[in-house]
Amino acid sequence: MYVILVYDCGEKRVGKMLKLCRKYLNWIQNSVFEGEISEVKLKELSLRAEKIMDLENDSLIIFSSRSEKWLDKQIIGKERSSIDNFL
């Protein structure tokens, strides 16, 4: 599946969340990630994120789609991190 993940964490937890999300998805902008991920890996990511988060104050939002082809993406301004597919 293809996901877009957005988080909002307290200052003390931002670095840990960034590091965790980079292990699973492609960083595209501050606190925003995207990419292909299996359901199992997404569940793993979610469980690890919950351990980092203060569930009373932080949030994690995951938008999912069957495939990237079902998603229109428009970038205005500078693209923070382009995703290149190369071998």
Percent of residues in helices comes to 25-40%
CATH class: Alpha Beta
Low-confidence stretches: none
Give the name of the CATH architecture: 2-Layer Sandwich
Integer-rounded radius of gyration: 13 Å
Q: Largest sheet, order of strands side by side?
A: 2-3-1-4
Report the structural category: alpha+beta
Could you give the count of β-strands? 4
**Beta-strand content estimate:** 25-35%
Largest sheet: 4 strands, antiparallel
Overall pLDDT level: 87
What CATH calls the topology is Alpha-Beta Plaits
What distance lies between the first and last C-alpha atoms, to the nearest angstrom?
21 Å
Secondary-structure element sequence?
EHEEHE
Can you tell me the overall shape?
Answer: globular
Annotation field: number of helices: 2
User: Number of folding domains?
Assistant: 1
Word description of this protein:
It contains 2 helices and 4 strands. The chain has a single domain (2-67), classed as 2-Layer Sandwich (Alpha-Beta Plaits). It is globular. With 87 residues, the protein is of the alpha+beta class.
Question: How would you concisely characterize the structure shown here?
Answer:
The protein has helices spanning 14-24, 39-52, and strands at residues 2-8, 26-29, 32-36, 59-65. The protein is an alpha+beta fold and 87 residues long.
How are the SSEs placed, and which strands pair?
Elements: E1 2-8, H1 14-24, E2 26-29, E3 32-36, H2 39-52, E4 59-65
Antiparallel strand pairs: 1-3, 1-4, 2-3
Helix pairs in contact: 1-2
